[in-house]
Amino acid sequence: MQELADPKGIQRATANRVDNAAEAMTDSLLKQIVISTAALDDRDSVEIAIADTGSGVTSEIKGRLFLPYFSTKN
Predict the structure, then answer these.
(1) Digit-coded pLDDT (tens) for 49-65
(2) Computed over its alpha carbons, how large is the radius of gyration of the chain?
(3) Which of 4, 18, 51, 58 is deepest in the core (most CB within 10 A)?
């Protein structure tokens, strides 16, 4: 089977998302991170979902999340 993704890159991206989720919950009373995976219908793709109990992001920030160098951190 041919690899179509960089395993180390996926590992770094997942670890970064978990770190961000943990930071997002600093002011939350309930601190919970849920990570789930699922094979998609085509069976050639996998979905990795990471959810947390942080406060979330505003619609303004949501529109900018994937811009290069964008951050809400100081």
Answers:
(1) 999 999 888 999 999 98
(2) 15
(3) 18
Asked whether the beta carbons of 38 and 61 are under 8 A apart, the reply is no
Written as six digits, the tokens of 14 are 């997942």
State the Cα angle at 15 between 52 and 74, rounded to 5°: 75
- CA atoms lying within 13 Å on the CB side of residue 22: 6
Spatial CA neighbour of 72 closest among 48, 51, 54: 54
Q: Residue 43: is its pLDDT beyond 90?
A: no
CB 55 within 8 A of CB 23: no
